[in-house]
Structures are given as C-alpha cells and as structure tokens.
Amino acid sequence: MKTAAESLLDRDAGLLWHPYASLDSGALYAVAQAQGAELLLQDAHGGEHRVVDGMASWWSMVHGYCNPALDAAAHAQIEKFSHVMFGGLTHQPAVELAERLVAMAPPSLRHVFLADSGSISVEVALKLALQYQDAKGRPERQRFLALRGGYHGDTFAAMSVCDPVDGMHSAFAPLCSQQVFAPRPPAAEHTVGGDWLYDEEELEIWEAQTRRLAAEHAGSLAGIIAEPVLQGAGGMFIYPPRVLRVLREIADEHALLLIADEIATGFGRTGKLFAVQHAGIEPDIMCVGKALTGGYLSLAAMLCIAGVAQALRTGTGSAPSALLHGPTFMGNPLACAIACASLDLLTGSGGAGIEPAQAPWQVQVARLERGLRSSLAPARALDAVREVRVLGGVGVIALHEPAGVAQLSAAAVERGAWVRPFRNLVYVMPPYICTDAQLQQLGAAMTGAVNQVYGG
Ligand SMILES: *Cc1c(COP(=O)(O)O)cnc(C)c1O
What we know:
The strands form five sheets. A seven-stranded mixed sheet has the order 4-14-13-12-9-5-6, sandwiched between helices. The protein has a four-stranded mixed sheet with strand order 1-2-3-17. A three-stranded antiparallel sheet has the order 15-16-18. It is of the alpha/beta class. The protein is 36% helix and 18% strand. Bound molecules: pyridoxal-5'-phosphate (PLP). Pyridoxal-5'-phosphate binds next to α5.
C-alpha cells in the first residue's frame, strides 16, 4: 500500500510543472504541515522529515507559517470580502497598505502601484519609466541600463533586464529587447563591524566603464535598474554600496530614472529596512514584493517619486496621463490586509507610522546575521567550499563547482533543513522568527550536506 504522500507525488509527476523544471523532474517532497519556521515533508519512500525552512518560501515567509497575526488578518478580511476589482473602486486594506509603504520607504517615494507579483511590479516600473520619458518629450528613450548578474523576474520585459548570459535571453532572444548591460560590480564583504571590504581599483575600473557606457547610450536610455547591494537569484552576490551612489550620479547626469528592485532585499533582509539605505541614496522608483506578503498571497508594489507621477499628469508626450497597467487582481484586499499585518509585525508599530528605535525586524535580522556567521563558519574549512558570505539574513556557501541540487537538498533534508541550491550556491534566507537553535541547525545541515556530497 502506498501512503497518501507517495500517491500524491505519483499523481504530480508528469502532470504539474514546477519552477524552472521539466515535467518529469522528479525528486519532490510533499508538504504535510507548515508551522512557524518548520515544514513537515514526506518523501517518495514513506519517510517524514521535520525541517527548518531555510528558503522562507522563496524569501517571503518572514514571520513564520500559520502566524497568528497574519491568520487573524486573513480571517477578518475574508469575512468582509476577499476580492473586488480595483478599477473605479477602493477599499481599506489597499489604502492602509499604501500608507504604510509610503511611511516606511525612503521619503521621496510618495505614490504606489499595487501589482500581483514581483515580476509585474518590474514590468510596471519599466512602463512608468518609458511613459515618463515620453511625457518629458524624450520618446526615443526606450532602453534600460542594467547590471550583469541581475535578476528582475520572468515576464518578458523583466527578463530582458536580467543577466543576458545567465538569464533566459538565449531561449527568447527575439522577444528580449536589447538593453545595455554594465559589468557586474566588484564583490564586497560586509564585516561584523559594518565595514564594506572590496577592491578599490576594481571599483574604479567598473565605475569608469559604466560611466562611459551610460554616456555612450544616454540618448536611448530611459532608466537604470539594479538590485541594491545584493544580487539575489542572479547569484547571491554582494557588491559595495558605493556602486549605488555611482548609479545615482549617472542617472542624475543623464536624466535617467533609477529603479531599485528591492523585491528580494526589502523589509530588512540585508540589515537595512531597504538596501538602498546602505548607500544613503533614494531611487526614483522602487519595487517591493516577497517579504511584503508575509509569504501568504502573491502581492508586490511599485513606488515612485512625486516628480515622476507629476510628469505623467502634465506630460506633453504621446502616451496618455494614465499609467498603462491594471491586472485583474490588482490591490487584492485579502493580500493587502495580510501585508498590512506583516508590515506591522516588522515595524512593531501596530499601525501606519514611524518605527520605534529598535524595530522587531532589526533585532531579528541582527540575530539571523550572528547565527548565520557562526553556524556557517565551519564550512570555510571544506575543500569543496570557495567562499562563505553573510549579509543580514542571507547566508551563502559558494562551492568551487556547480551544486547537485537534488543530492544536496536531500542531504540537507536528512539533517533537518530545507534548502534549494542553484548554480554553485547553497544558501539560506531564513524566516526572521528563526531561533538560535534553528539557525545552528540550518548551518550544520548545509555544511554537513556539502561535506557528504563532496567529501569535504
Ligand atoms: C523574486 C524576484 C523578482 C520576481 O518576483 P516574482 O514575485 O517571482 O514575480 C524580481 N526581482 C527580484 C530581485 C526578485 O528577487
């Protein structure tokens, strides 16, 4: 007799696609329960594994599964209404969420577009930049300057600004419009003392190349897009905040809009509420998602400065003053109500407003950073390991060779951790509520899995 989980895995095989996978990619676990920072997984052989979720459901589930405050927000809203269209209608959850976002974000960001996923918020940011340039009488500015190594989503425009080699450009070349790519900035290390270590000379070379590239293409560029300080899905790569100050200067010099994609980094993950704050700059447009949702329902947002919104209102270009986007589930009340509760937990404010001196996220992320630094340190001794990087609530083991995803994640599951390696990277971005013991378990499982699979 097969267990229920075994037959579920059988029924999934060949029926459902999973992310970036072939139909028959196999090697799945069934989730039987999710509670706090833990998942209860069932494998294809009747085994059960209680694991700490090092991925926080792709970096979104910061407050834990079945969080009482988020559950209560969801229940309260579902009793009222789960969804209404946003065209011509509004509701309390959307307005409250936008107020909270504007209160938390860098001060010049004043206006909010609610999108149904991170990729869509990037699409909307790019559209807005094009509409802005058109309204300013520069309709020929149709392209974007992006960084090599970046990731901004899977829809076509978002994909076009992802890394042109590691992204999916080759598969969809004709539909990925030709953007301008600056080199990947030099790597940086963020020390316990808060210093950024990097090669000064490499940074100067990068800066000179990027300034030259921007000057050369300025006439056709609408904006610059970057993930501040941490390139996530493009390689868990940390670069110096000074890069962002250079991008800000370039944007100002050539009348480009600077778009900060904070979908992975926002809401404290890198040790600042927003990663642009490491550099002390403000973007013109910012995208947020993932942690915004508390890991419950798909939602993202794009924020912009008053000048950009004003240009659309009063512009002289061919595009109308409306921002040309409006998904069916825009501003979904259920997702917004949960996001409001999620932001309140982060800031400890219990409502829209200023955060206290030591907001809950600051205490939590500082603890994650300490725990990851100590629990991943032993991995440095393994021959297979090239580098260990930690920034805020992000812990990365970079291997010398590409990671065997199925083997490594199975070895980690055996040791009580859920990780999903990619390329040569075994990394975690754990829930903010992880205890010290759970962080130790994650680090030990990652190190143990690498040691098992690569023999040290
Ligand atoms: C995850 C991510 C996206 C895409 O968000 P989805 O909600 O998956 O569409 C875009 N940019 C960055 C930096 C991300 O990490």
